[in-house]
Amino acid sequence: MQDDDNISKFKADKQDIVKNKELNIYEALIPVVILMGLLAYNIFFVDGQEWLGGYTNQLILLMGGFVAMIGGLMNKVPLKLMVKEVWENIKSIIVPIIILLLVGALAGTWLVSGVIPAMVYYGLQVLSPEIFLPASVVIAAVISIATGSSWTTSATVGIALVGIGTALGIHPGMIAGAVISGAYFGDKMSPLSDTTNLAPAMAGTDLFTHIRYMTITTVPTILITLIVFAVISMNIDTTGSADISNLLNTINNTFNISPWLFLVPAAVIALILLKTKPLIALGTGVVLAGIFSFIFQPDILNNLSESKFGAIINSILTDTAIETDNEKLNDLFSAGGMNGMLWTIYLILCAMVFGGIMDAIGALARITQALLSVATTIFGLFFSTVVSCLGLNAIASDQYLALVIPGKMFKKAYEDRGLAPENLSRTLEDSGTVTSVLIPWNTCGAYQSGVLGVPVVDYFFYAIFNWLSPFMTLIFAAFSIKIKQLVKKG
What is the pLDDT of residue 8? Predict the structure, then answer.
């Protein structure tokens, strides 16, 4: 799912899961309970106020990590091992962090070059409110299947769709939910996706058997998602639809709008399709946007800075705001550059500290073992797998670990129950891959909310495909629908 293009570097199927016989389940859960309690307090009682200096979630994750470290020391886990696991976690996200910085630079340069305004300008004329949300799901799904990446989808068409929908007066949470639903459907079903390759590797099946078997639960889920968004679109009150002509005139008067500007996002998507490294593809998008800024938007650059080159550098690094005579567009035509991504990067780093310490002290393995021990029926086995994936997405803050640890722990249990390995691989994807984006401090949740500019709490309900997927897999398990058995070798 992540655009680090480094499954081979991650070597997930060769990762050791740290076990600690001296750690009991209650000790393993103490850091989790404290973490969840503080996060719940922040969400439900602080009500958005900035306590702890505005970096609340980051500091809460560090507090949870400190509690886990104390528990580890009490159970004879060397501090050196905990530091090592934290460092390994941080190393695994270096490339995604660089990608986040590039996406920030992309947003800034695509704004000053007129790429984003052009997308909004033409999109307003093509995408009417009545079809906008289901169309967003389909567009995001197609791009994600082609690229194998929900991250690339959000950084390109996702940003544009949020801009277009916001101008139409549609709630940003709805738009982000539609984009994320489509992006994760496409990513999940694409043979180019890293998690789609990782899940069958963990379970012991092949890629295309895994994809075919996933369609059984994934197709009904995406159809329900499309129906719900179609109903919402038909009944939505879009206050922005009445003044589209005013919006179009304002955009046209502020920017030099041209279809040639679409060469920039087209080049980025083409590079991704050609399997170019994401860092190169996104970096190319930044450079091209800078060049197009000189060609198409010299007046914008002059208004932003005394030096055109300085204006482009500022758009890459810091906040950029382009003033128009429309307040709605003023909010839309602003970007934070790389600086705007720092809060998200700090969140991911702190999450990796907490997850690394929890792994080092054996808490992740202990919690998963406890779930496995209560799986006395086939449905119980599926349910335990789902809960394990969901829990690890929240505790380890990384979707790779949410696939790797349950995949290793539950593989033999599925075999012992006579279940084909694709049952496990499908369940890992239905519950581990797609729900990672619903956790604010998970790498995926932090990335998507940072790139789309919509908090997880705002899009959570509307990311229908993502939260419906684990329910769908449990429904199929409960009624024994298409549960494939192991073929006994004669």
Answer: 34
At residue 377, the 3 state secondary structure works out as coil
| Torsions phi, psi for 294 (to 5 deg) | -65, -40
Tokens 């459907």 map to which residue? 185
SS3 content of the chain, % helix, strand, coil (to 5): 75, 0, 25
pLDDT value at residue 263 = 94
> How far, in Å, CA of 194 to CA of 171, rounded?
31
Q: How many CB atoms lie within 10 A of CB 204?
A: 16
What is the C-alpha separation between 236 and 344, in angstroms, rounded? 31
Considering the entire predicted model, what is its pTM?
Answer: 0.79
The reply to whether 367 falls in a domain is yes
Query: Which pLDDT score, from 0 to 100, does residue 45 have?
Result: 67
Residue 1 lies in a domain: no
Considering Cα of 117, then 123, then 124, then 125, what sign does the dihedral take?
A: positive
Residue 31: phi and psi, rounded to 5, are -60, -35
290 & 360 share domain: no
Residues 446 and 411 in one domain: yes
| Same-domain status, 211 and 336 | yes
The domain in which residue 170 lies consists of 95-341
The letter for the amino acid at 469 is S
Block mean pLDDT (10 aa), the chain, length 490: 41 56 84 84 62 73 92 90 90 82 88 88 81 92 83 84 87 96 93 84 87 95 96 75 72 91 89 81 92 93 89 92 80 83 85 88 85 86 94 85 84 89 95 94 91 93 97 95 74
Nearest to 180 by CA among 458, 392, 394: 458
User: Same structural domain for residues 356 and 335?
Assistant: no
pLDDT at residue number 334: 82
The tokens describing 110, both together, are: 């695509």
Measured CA to CA, the distance from residue 267 to residue 411 in angstroms comes to 42
Give yes or no: residues 99 and 86 share one domain: no
pLDDT at 2: 47
What angle do helix axes 25-44 and 363-373 make, rounded to 10 degrees?
100
Q: SS3 of 335, please?
A: strand
Q: Could you tell me the two tokens for 128?
A: 């009417």
What does the pLDDT read at residue 1? 47
Tell me what pLDDT residue 457 has. 92
284 and 183 housed in the same domain: yes
Domain boundary among 317, 341, 365: 341
Q: Which of 341, 363, 395 is the last residue of a domain?
A: 341
**Cβ atoms 263, 289 nearer than 8 A:** no
Judge if 238 and 109 occupy the same domain.
yes
